[in-house]
Amino acid sequence: MIQPVSPESAQYCGLLAKYSSVLFGNLVWLPNFNGKPYFNFVATVDAVKSGNVLSGYLIDYVKSGKVIVIQGIIGERFSSVVNQAFLAKINNTGLTVAVNSHGFYDQNITIPVITQALSANPNAKAIVTFSGEMGNGVAIYLKQNGIKNIVYISVDCNVELAEYIRDMLSIYIKYIC
């Protein structure tokens, strides 16, 4: 299963999988592009709903303050749609986005991003990530630094992030599947 950055990358990966006799699925890309014949299945995620759920939770429970957003890749379809929906819903609320950066779906890239974001905004009330891998980076940083006064939400969750959640019960972490 891949979450492609571009139609070209999806098509290329699909072609490699087909000729390697590997089952291959595409997550969240538009189902009507040229690479579709190479996929065994295509799954779609409602990115607008994801953005609305994230923002709705923060509006209801955090209410006001600075938010740090870490997208997968700024401009990539999934991140862009989630981000647009998120920003539209928090518009004219007490929430403001202090940092809107990308973590390239990688925990190791996300750690310095969240380090810099929280250094510049130590009074941030919430952190939002658009993937479990980036969520791992945020959870690692929060745990290593004993930060327990911030709401952290991730669009999804993986096994590693679930372990951090169990380890950090005093830090409220919510994930959306």
Describe this structure in words.
It comes from Didymodactylos carnosus. InterPro entries: Peripla_BP_I, SBP_2_dom. This is Periplasmic binding protein domain-containing protein. With 177 residues, the chain is of the alpha/beta class. The protein folds into two domains: 7-43, no CATH class; 47-175, 3-Layer(aba) Sandwich (Rossmann fold). It is built from six helices and seven strands. It has helices at residues 7-19, 47-61, 77-90, 107-120, 132-144, 159-167, and strands at residues 25-27, 41-43, 64-71, 94-102, 126-129, 151-154, 173-175. A five-stranded parallel β-sheet has the order 4-3-5-6-7, with helices on both faces. It has a two-stranded parallel sheet with strand order 1-2. The longest helix has 15 residues, at 47-61. It is globular, with a radius of gyration of 17 Å. The two termini are 16 Å apart. Residues 170-177 have low confidence and may be disordered.
Question: Which descriptors apply to this entry?
Answer:
177 residues, alpha/beta, Rossmann fold, disordered C terminus
